[in-house]
């Protein structure tokens, strides 16, 4: 296999020598056994992808890394051959040599690994996943099952539940659904036709969609918990919890609507200081709806945990159990499509006024609604075993732009107001922004207001000053 050679600068060499090993990066010396390196490549492929640089030696005692690459591309043939057998060049794996200005330092082999849709094994036959700077072996059947679910190879929704069939075949939910959607069918034959009943047992999807109380059969993994924290801190605590968490139960269809309504109701109770006193903060209802719907429909129901909605003074966090499935990442989630729970997504869309009206477009709709209100886009981040979406009450644009836009419609602005609009937590940081705008002759202090009442206003334009003087 021919591998491209990329000429790099001395600055690139220096950057490579200070790379920190972590969840997405690993560096190795050329004398490492290729078989051992396959563990690293497989672990990246089974997690979130990453980059391996082979040819950077590290002095563990001194904590110093140096570029000491292969003398020639042929010197890396042993590595390339083993990698190519296990991880063929293509969409998921890319290999290239990096040649520095000083040829005596040799070539570093860069392996770019994408998150793969299937499980990759190292040369020892073992399965590994990347967590932090470690390649952790997947040892137990339970761990391997979870990895398969993370990859989207299997889904817990198809597992059967040892409960009576009447729980789904004779529930109020399924009877109402049949009368509304397929009035000519009987529940049990229809459920079997949809593969929601297997060997006379309902599947997880059947219980979640059509049981009146799924939580009785699937405890600790089928509810939504809503918290209200009276703080803007990065984490909530028992001291800042406004009241005991609210638990939303019932079938998924009813649960989503109830959770969105309760979240909106609690948000409306939050008051911030505005131009006319205390005002309610605003989040687009459609954003809350789409993100909560997404969390419920695409979570991993194999994890014994509920969906969590945490309402803070300046943001809402929605946490969904399970990592992003298959090839989906926080970076491509708005453009790529993959449904972990295909049956749930397909069948809930058959309900009247379904929560997922535009299948696959929910998050895009949520982002667009935030933009329309000139609020910052939601932030999607991945934890060890969950996905968290942060919906911040923070204006779009740089702090300077936000201040000037605000002053276009208001006579003055305070430090507190800017922190509220931008999400900046530091009073001193906002002061520095005020001073920079003042030095640029964009704003000035409001005379007579100092200390805790200090405020700033726009510097009048020449036309405004002229118009003012002409009045006298």
UniProtKB/TrEMBL annotation:
Pfam family, one: SLFN_AlbA_2
Alphabetical UniProt keywords: ATP-binding, Nucleotide-binding
Keyword Cell membrane carried by entry: no
Coiled-coil ranges (or none): none
Every Schlafen AlbA-2 domain range: 21-138
Keyword Transmembrane helix set for record: no
Molecular functions per Gene Ontology: ATP binding
InterPro entries: RecG_C_sf, Schlafen_AlbA_2_dom, Schlafen_AlbA_2_dom_sf, WH-like_DNA-bd_sf
Protein name according to UniProt: ATP-binding protein
Taxonomic source organism: Micromonospora zhanjiangensis
Organism lineage string: Bacteria, Bacillati, Actinomycetota, Actinomycetes, Micromonosporales
